[in-house]
Amino acid sequence: MRTLSGISAVPAADWDALTGPDQPALQHAFLTLLEATGAASPATGWTARHQIIDDSQGGLAAALPLYEKQHSFGEFVFDFALADAWHRSGLHYYPKLVTGIPFSPLIGPRLLGRDENHRHALAEAMEKLANGQDFSTAHALFCNQPDQQLLSGRGWVRRDGCRFLWQNRDYRDFDHWLEGFRSKKRKNLRRERRDVRERGIHFHWVEGEALQYADWEQLYPLYANTYHQRLQEPYLPRTFFEQLCREQRDSVLLIEARDEDEQLIAMAFCLKGKDTLYGRHWGALRDVDGLHFETCYHQGIEYCIERGLKYFDPGTQGEHKLLRGFEPVETWSMHWIPHPGLRQAVADFAAAEAQRNRAYMQAAHEHLPFHRAPGTPELSP
Fold first, then answer.
1. Residue 143 gets which letter from DSSP?
2. What stretch of H or E contains 112?
3. Running DSSP on this structure, what letter comes out for residue 331?
4. pLDDT (0 to 100) of residue 380
5. Which label site among 58, 114, 280, 343 has the fewest CB atoms less than 10 Å from its CB?
6. Nearest CA-CA partner of 147 in 332, 378, 328
7. Which parts of the chain have pLDDT scores under 70?
């Protein structure tokens, strides 16, 4: 087992061979750019402690994207109450260990190993680090079901959450998808889209080679404005987007909204996997009714239908996604709590939270717009 202070020390092809084809934010280029541009760095509270297992020939047998964290921002699994309980007990919660994708609540594997033994070894490495004196806890954020099951078997505490997922059931086009809606809901959504068009707003999908000409002097202020409205600084610098569009352009989709004078007024930044479109960032210069829904959801659905993608994952939270046909799906985060007393308290809290989450998901299903149940959505990779 080796510890790396930067992912650039690993050959890109070796790392990407472990991630799978539907994990654009877990690929070498994406994580390397987060570190190289300073977005995920010790200065921002993300110190890389990636765990690596080599095979007998010196190749990469297993890898764990792991960070020492000095805070809980940029994770999207909220543990501020846990941190407060730690501090009230006279203990230090930070630094802690986190495996996940900085600033990206995307479901996927975290224990990247060729086989089960390698994945257990990575989990054991996190446990040993957290069992020492340097770190309070270890956390696996938005892990997939195989990792959740492996870590549960090792005694990690599971926290349940909810995301909203669109699934392509071989729709011919957007109208074919809308046929499954109740009449009133279908009319409302069509009117919403029509209102946007009648304002002279139209959309462009920018991908592939065209991304190298994307004008981030105009695009970046849209992204940054979303954070500034919340009195926050953006997590990601402009150089991150510029370089990603050059170096990982097959994994990026830009959805641009322009007015009748071809002025850029809104954008959605998405990542593409083999089967899944991931909605990640959005921004707008104007407050236009329906513009957010059209840019971030309806255009993405149209893209998935036209390109034959199976899933559209627009991100966590947001009941408004239900009315647009995004179905609630369970998510998990896993937590290694060495302190026995606090571990039991966290486990009790997580059990109560899981009951509330199940009730929430049941209620959410009842608010879907379909006149017939489409069936439980499959879990994307």
1. B
2. strand 112-113
3. E
4. 46
5. 58
6. 332
7. 372-381
Query: What local confidence, expressed as pLDDT, does residue 372 receive?
Result: 65
Question: What is the Cβ-side half-sphere exposure of residue 8, based on CA atoms within 13 angstroms?
Answer: 7
Strands 311-313 and 202-207: unpaired
What is the pLDDT at residue 379? 46
Structure-derived torsion over alpha carbons of residues 173, 176, 182, 185, reported in degrees to the nearest 10: 20
Rounded to whole angstroms, the Cα distance separating 221 from 147 reads 37
Cβ partners under 8 Å of residue 310, min gap 6:
167, 168, 275, 276, 304, 380
Sign of CA dihedral 271, 293, 307, 204: negative
* Residue of 97, 109, 172, 187 lying closest to 146 (CA atoms): 109
The alpha carbon of residue 338 and the mean position of all alpha carbons in its chain are separated, in whole angstroms, by: 27
Summarize pLDDT for 45-101 with one digit per residue, the tens.
999 999 999 998 888 999 999 999 999 999 988 888 888 888 888 889 999 999 999
Domains and CATH numbers, the chain: 2-162+329-365 (3.40.630.30), 169-309 (3.40.630.30)
For the chain, the helix, strand and coil percentages under 3-state DSSP, each to the nearest 5: 45, 25, 35
Neighbours of 2 (CB within 10 A): 11
Q: How far is CA 234 from CA 103, 225, 247, 361, in A?
A: 10, 8, 22, 31
Burial readout 32-54 (b: 16 or more C-beta within 10 A, e: otherwise): bbbbbbebbbeebbbbbbbbbbe
Bond before 95 cis per omega within 30 degrees: yes
Using CA atoms, how far apart are residues 168 and 305, in angstroms rounded to an integer? 7
Whether the CB-CB separation of 355 and 189 falls below 8 Å is answered with no
Q: Please tell me whether the overall predicted TM-score, pTM, comes out greater than 0.70 for this model.
A: yes
For the record, the structure tokens of 258 come out as: 């322009």
Q: Which residue shows structure tokens 């830009």? A: 254
- Secondary structure class of 329 (helix, strand, coil): strand
Name the packing angle between helices 238-247 and 28-36 (round to 10°): 150
